[in-house]
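**User:** Here is a favour to ask of a fellow structure person. Please take any protein you like and set down a full record of it. No explanation is needed for now; the record alone will do.

**Assistant:**
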Amino acid sequence: MAAVTAEVVVVGAGIAGVSTAYHLASRPGMGRVVVVDPRPPLTLTSDKSTECYRNFWPSPEMVELTNHSISLLEELTEDSGDYFSLSRRGYLFVTSDQQRLDAMARQAEVSSDYGTGPVRHHPGPKPYGEAPDGVDILTHGVLHDAFPYLNDDAVGAIHVRRAGWFSAQQLGALMLERFRSMGGEVISAEVEEIIVLGGRVRGVRIADGSTIEAAAVVVAAGPMSETVAATAGLELPLFSELHLKVSFRDHLGVIPRDAPMVIWSDPQRIDWSDDEREELAALVRDELLGEMPIFCHGRPEGGTDSQYFVGLWEYHQKVMEPVWPLPEDPLYPEVVMRGLTTMVPGLVVYRDRLPPSTVDGGYYTKTGENRPLIGPAGPEGLHLVAGLSGFGVMVAAAAGDLAATHICDEALPLHADAFLLSRYDDPGYLTAVAGLDDHGQL
């Protein structure tokens, strides 16, 4: 290809890269911005996401980041006529353990102090109903009046209100369209090297041997970010976990279409029959026979006329180098359905004959404390939008905006330093995160 010169090269055309490119191109006076990726935009992991968002996190920095991201999403949805179907039905964390409910209520108070919004108790002085933000704490009677399909054993729940889901593919398509309309370009090629001379970035070399000259390069390559950054001599503290999801047809309408994201917050054991347990043991699937982890969850998929429901349960806990196609788990639909049945007993009608289902997924590429890497790192001109874990879709808007703020040397928000790679040079930070027992991951 002919020699190309740009002001900024963004490596990666997933939701993180597209958002970064969009926010850069939106800056007044910004020169040419080029996105480089060998795959079509939004096709590696971005289109496999849960497509959910929430401002409920165990750290003030993550609450601030997601609050800003949600505000940007709200502006975009209003400006575009709800192009990407932004909903706000919330996250409903359900438990059958009173001590766990008490702990969740305490966590809600802490998160409220961080900026999630007010905490409301039900029953209480105000009736339970619609709310723009904050957290509602529901005890047994109120919970089952509002959500009668839940397990009678549930003693309560917390309902996070500034939360919901949207079409990540449509959001990405909207930002990509606007990026191109502002003169941005997407080049289908693989970046083989970030060129660094004299301690600063000079551009990238792509697979055909040609170069794209640029004063700034953004590594936003999702699961490939570690590999791409290494070509500039930068080591990133990232690892990847396999995460799957299953979409099934709830043709009997067990879960109402207006349900929130429902999350069973207790560990559980699947009630396999003796024969099934023997078969699972023979298959060396011992992880399915004992106590299973918390947070089996799911939500309605599609509009009011849809019959589909998306279920997720990260019981694999498998750290691995990303490979494609994804490793298969033929038992995943049944395991998730059994887990969801604990929370929504009506799903038992599907036990003996599972409805049609589709499994896909991707990788959560993350740091050890599950906070992203956003901002300058390594040689001058190199920037990161990486380690977006399972919250890539919900923070992509703010992450791209923050990266653009760094690159354009604008005034930074208070939480900016919390996402720099240089935070690992601070012994106090390392001590603080070493003691964390809640990283905010479902």
